[in-house]
Amino acid sequence: MSAGRVVALVAGIIVALVALGLLAGGGTLLWAHTTQRDDDGFYSTRSEPFRSPSYAIRTDDLDVGTEGPDWLFEEGRLATVRLRGRSERPDKQLFLGIGPRSDVESYLSDVDHDVLVDFGVDPFTVEYRHNVGTREPEPPSSQTFWSASGIGAVTWEVQKGDWVAVAMNADGTRGIAADISVGAKSDLALWSGIVVLVLGLIAAAGAVLLIVFGLRGRRPAAGATSA
Known about the structure:
Layout: H1 3-35, E1 43-44, E2 48-52, E3 56-59, E4 62-64, E5 80-87, E6 94-100, H2 101-107, E7 113-121, E8 124-131, E9 148-151, E10 153-157, E11 161-169, E12 176-185, H3 187-215
Helix pairs in contact: 1-3
């Protein structure tokens, strides 16, 4: 077997492994898109307990890069995020809001609250950074800077910028005890699955051609006879 055919065979095997990875990834994305969403089309976590004796729990940052093309962020084209929650305190309603980071930080300046810096899903773990304050905040629903807000649920179409999600008692009082789930949906998941699957099929076809070329024996010269 010539060196060229050996190289083609090795390259074909490598490309075949890449193709298998692409096909598996694309298939998984399509499977998740068709079977793992709820009736509203969201992929969602379980409701998990978030607790704080302070006035609010907020995320550290929801940084959506500003370098992408504007069309990607039109009408929630990139993604839609949904927060759902229920207060464990029967006398309290749970407020959920998403707003610009600068406005939220100004609103919670010198207010005792916890910042969510990390959490795991399986098993559920959560880590907070406590910000000490002495001021009592006004009720969150009285603020006008929220990009999206609601009692018990909020749906937000992702936009460029630095954003913060906040959970508070609707009356602005101390003591957050709520079970909250996070969901998201995006048409890009479907298209990503299709693109990855197509790339896998193309790579598989290329692998087949390389392997067949590498395994083909050299044809005997014209007129040659065997001994």
